[in-house]
From TrEMBL:
Chain ranges passing through the membrane: none
Record-given protein name: Uncharacterized protein (DUF1330 family)
InterPro entries linked to this entry: Dimeric_a/b-barrel, DUF1330
DUF1330 domain ranges (all copies): 4-94
Pfam families, per the entry: DUF1330
UniProt signal peptide: none
Length: 96
């Protein structure tokens, strides 16, 4: 079964509130066997919308990534992000 990636591009508009999201989301992601591969590091925007916070997390499967997003813990964390950021988030299955 191929692993899956969460890929997020974020513009933080309220750093204090977003920090609360990040703390709670980190735990929810770990609880679903997610591991961060990149998180707010240096980047070069080549095309599209520039959002300074970029995050990639790997999960053991697409289902685990999906279950994390819809989990009670992640949805609670997401409440902090809703009015504190502009976000794009997707799940992408890796090549097998």
């Amino acid at each position: 079964m191929p692993a899956a990636l969460w890929i997020a591009h974020v513009k933080v508009t309220d750093p204090e509130r977003y920090a609360k999201y990040a703390a709670a989301a980190t735990k929810a992601i770990a609880d679903h066997e997610g591991v961060f591969l990149a998180r707010n590091g240096a980047y070069e925007q080549l095309e599209g919308n520039d959002r300074a916070r970029n995050v990639v997390a790997r999960f053991p499967s697409l289902q685990k990534a999906h279950d994390c997003y819809y989990s009670e813990a992640y949805q609670a964390a997401l409440e902090f992000a809703r009015d504190a950021s502009e976000r794009d988030l997707m799940i992408l299955e890796e090549l097998d």
